[in-house]
Prior knowledge:
single chain; 268 residues; mainly alpha; elongated; disordered N terminus
Amino acid sequence: MSESQSDRDTGEEQRRPRRTVRTWRVRRRFRHRERPQARPWPDVHEDIAYLTRELGRWHPHTLAAHSRVFSWLLHEGRHPEILRLAEAEAAEQTAEFGADDPATLGCRSALAWRRRRIGDLDGAVAEARAVAEDSARVLGPDHADTHRRRAYLARFLAENGEAAEGVRLLRVLYAESQAFGWQRKDETRSIRTALVTALELNGDVQEALDLLEEELEVERGTIYGIDENLGDYEMKRLQEWRTRLVAEVALQDWNRRRKHEQSKDAPG
C-alpha cells in the first residue's frame, strides 16, 4: 500500500464516528414520545452535545435526537426555546452546506413556521418570502417544494392582516398545482385548504365554504392504509370547519337582509 493511500485510510479512520456502548445508551434516552420527568432539560442538552461530539452534528442519530428535542419542547409549549434552537440550526446548516442547499432551504422554511407559532408574523412573512424566492431560484418556480413555500408565504400574509394578497397568491398557486393533475394531488389539497383559510380571513365565507365542500368530497374518497387514520381525525376536522363556515354564511346573510330592510325603512 502506498504512503498516500495509508494516510487517506488513517484520515478516514480518524473521521469515522465513534459508536460505542455509551452512544447507544444516550441515543436510547430519546426514544420516548414525551420527555421523561426524571430527565431535566440541562441533562437533555448535555446528551445532545455528547452525541454531537462523538457522532458529528449531521449524523442521523444526532439529527434524530435533535428532532425528538423539538417534539418534546413543542409538547411542553416552550416556543421561545424552540425558536432559539431553530435559529441556531438554520445558521449551522447554512454555514455547513450553504444557503442554497435544499436541506438548508427546508430548515429555513421550518424556521418561518417557528416564528409564526410564537406570534412573530412579521418575522414569519419575511423569512417565508426570502425562502420562497431562493427556492424558486434554486429549484425552479414549478418545483413542489417551491409551490409549498409560496403557499406558506401566502398563508402567513393572510394571517398577518393581508388576507386579500394571500387569497390572490393562493388562487394562482391553486390553478398552477391543479394543472399538474394527479402527481400533485397532495400538494393541491394542501393549497386548497390554505386558500379556504385565507378566504375565510378575507370575509369570503361562501366561496370558502364551496371550496371546503370540494375538500370534503376528496377526503371521503381517500383510501387509507390499515393502520392509518384510525380516528378519522381529518374528516372530523373538516366537518367541524364546515359547521363553522355554514354558521358564518348564515350570519352574513342575516346581516345583509337586515341592512337591506333598514335601508328601505330609512326616511327619504
